[in-house]
């Protein structure tokens, strides 16, 4: 048009309007954007990145329509801001498109992410310098590497006494009573920090000592950890022992007179015997009694028998020292001359022996009455004597006669 185009309504055109004259009207509608950004700054791994995509001023929304942004970066659709913290070294090629109602525009771009500059480790520290634990418990330690932007923040954990405490990525486990030191070491620079770990036993239960008997074992006192089940000879749990070390062996029986001196149990196979006075002799008229000793215990004494008859308590005396029985003289006088059998009866058996009663001797100054047998012996001797004398006389007479005849 080289004249004047007057339009008071809507002018819809899908082509080109060439006008060399005057177009007295407001042209309404949206012009398509034109991207003016042609390159982007280089980024660094671990360092925050910001870059804004621009157009010729036309409003637009943004999208990555081909390829992808570097890892860690994103594109804001409404503002065209690329931001974030790159996580890896790379060069990323991509296409961005800006669009509005009037149309769109695209641009091929790239972002190079350089490796991070090395920031050396200066120090490392632990959250605690001492961590007290009970056997079986766990605790946590936290490591802090300085500066916080150090490039290599890798660390290793170690224990100088794994039998007491172990460590796994900062988690400490108490194994047994004692002391361990946990050390953290940086991969960069070998910086270290330590934490002392005293480990104590759980509650200790006391078992008192018991003396052994003849037949039953005893035990020394000891303490048992309720947590770990170990045994100790002291209340502090410092000296570990085994249960076998606490055992006191049974003493066994020690027999005397057929009984154990400790528990009074009877001695198996014990047979009492007369150990003093066996085969004794007592003569009538003697003032003292006759004593016999049985090796049975005095406490086991039951009674005395003579010739199968139980004696009355008034017939004898009994005293300790194994068992000493003395038959009284008054009782012995009632017994006939000759041998008799004595039995001392005890709970552990009987002790038997014989003793002899002799007739009383003649009193000093008295002439004993001859016994019938003695008189017979004297008469016999007299007869023999007379016969001998007669024989001798006859022999002498015969010899005289022969001599006279010659």
TrEMBL record:
Keywords associated with the record: Membrane, Transmembrane, Transmembrane helix
One Pfam family recorded for the sequence: Big_2
Domain BIG2: 120-196
Taxonomic superkingdom: Bacteria
Keyword Cell wall biogenesis/degradation: no
GO cellular component, one term: membrane
Region (Disordered): 1-26
Molecular function in Gene Ontology: calcium ion binding
SUPFAM superfamilies: Cadherin-like, E set domains, Invasin/intimin cell-adhesion fragments
Xref: Gene3D superfamilies: 2.60.40.1080, Immunoglobulins
InterPro entries reported in the protein's UniProt record: Big_2, Cadherin-like_sf, Ig-like_fold, Ig_E-set, Invasin/intimin_cell_adhesion
Biased composition (Polar residues): 1-23
Transmembrane segments: 378-398
Protein's UniProt name: Ig-like domain-containing protein
């Amino acid at each position: 048009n080289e004249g004047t185009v007057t339009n008071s309504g809507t002018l819809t055109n899908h082509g080109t309007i060439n006008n060399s004259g005057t177009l007295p009207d407001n042209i309404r509608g949206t012009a398509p954007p034109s991207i003016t950004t042609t390159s982007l700054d280089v980024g660094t791994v671990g360092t925050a990145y910001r870059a804004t995509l621009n157009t010729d001023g036309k409003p637009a929304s943004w999208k990555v329509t081909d390829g992808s942004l570097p890892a860690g970066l994103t594109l804001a659709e409404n503002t065209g801001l690329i931001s974030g913290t790159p996580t890896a070294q790379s060069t990323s090629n991509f296409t961005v498109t800006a669009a509005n109602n009037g149309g769109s525009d695209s641009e091929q771009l790239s972002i190079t992410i350089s490796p991070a500059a090395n920031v050396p480790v200066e120090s490392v520290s632990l959250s605690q310098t001492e961590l007290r634990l009970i056997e079986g418990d766990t605790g946590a330690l936290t490591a802090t590497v300085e500066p916080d932007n150090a490039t290599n923040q890798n660390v290793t954990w170690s224990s100088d006494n794994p039998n007491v405490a172990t460590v796994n990525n900062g988690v400490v486990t108490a194994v047994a009573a004692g002391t361990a030191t946990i050390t953290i070491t940086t991969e960069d620079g070998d910086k270290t920090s330590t934490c002392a770990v005293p480990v104590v036993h759980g509650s200790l239960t006391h078992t008192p000592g018991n003396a052994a008997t003849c037949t039953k074992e005893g035990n020394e006192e000891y303490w048992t950890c309720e947590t770990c089940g170990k045994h100790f000879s002291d209340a502090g749990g410092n000296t570990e022992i085994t249960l076998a070390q606490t055992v006191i062996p049974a003493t066994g029986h020690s027999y005397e007179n057929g009984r154990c001196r400790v528990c009074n149990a009877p001695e198996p196979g014990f047979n009492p015997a007369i150990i003093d006075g066996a085969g004794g002799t007592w003569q009538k008229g003697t003032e003292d009694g006759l004593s016999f000793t049985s090796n049975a215990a005095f406490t086991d004494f039951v009674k005395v028998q003579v010739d199968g008859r139980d004696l009355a308590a008034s017939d004898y005396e009994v005293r300790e020292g194994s068992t000493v029985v003395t038959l009284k003289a008054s009782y012995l006088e009632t017994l006939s001359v000759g041998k008799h059998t004595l039995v001392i009866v005890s709970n552990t058996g009987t002790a038997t022996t014989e003793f002899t009663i002799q007739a009383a001797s003649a009193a000093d100054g008295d002439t004993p009455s001859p016994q019938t047998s003695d008189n017979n012996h004297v008469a016999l001797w007299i007869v023999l004597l007379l016969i001998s004398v007669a024989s001798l006389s006859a022999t002498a007479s015969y010899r005289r006669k022969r001599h006279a005849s010659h």
